[in-house]
Amino acid sequence: MKIKIKMFIGFAILGTMVVSCKKDLKEIGPPASKMEGMKASWVLTKAVQIDELSLTKESANVFGFLSSSPNLPNIVFSDSTYAVDTVGLKLNFFGDVSGKWSFDNPLYPSKVNFVPSNGAPFSLKLGGPIRPQDNLKLSKEIKVSCGGEDNLVLSYVLEFMRK
Length: 163
What we know:
Helices cover 17% and strands 40% of the residues. The chain has 3 helices and 9 strands. The chain has helices spanning 2-20, 34-38, 63-66; strands spanning 40-51, 59-61, 74-77, 81-85, 98-103, 111-116, 122-126, 136-146, 149-162. It has an 8-stranded antiparallel barrel. Strand 3 (74-77) and strand 4 form a beta hairpin. The termini are far apart.
């Protein structure tokens, strides 16, 4: 009988200790500025081409093709403008060499809108958060119009790193 009472008291003390322990919550601070995350010089580090018509969304790493030119694709973002070094590039994803840019939603961006100096406006999807410590991930969709309907046939997933 005494052993049962001692075991009950021991489990009660142990249970009280477990329940009374709680983790300290850490402050994560204010959200990172998306504008500060975007304003930088970026160089391409990864490029993948995806066949959107394939059932398995087959992909190919095309970074070797793009990096075989004298310059890697790069882009510089300032407060509202961008500039691309297009010398010797085999494929330019940004239209003209410069223009204006903006987020589709400044608080919760999902796309970057581009307005080239000499060209038609276009958007690229963001593939991740835009913080000063993150890489820039963009997706470019290639659509073909057939029978009055736009069909997604190909996409590029581009990853840029700060210089």
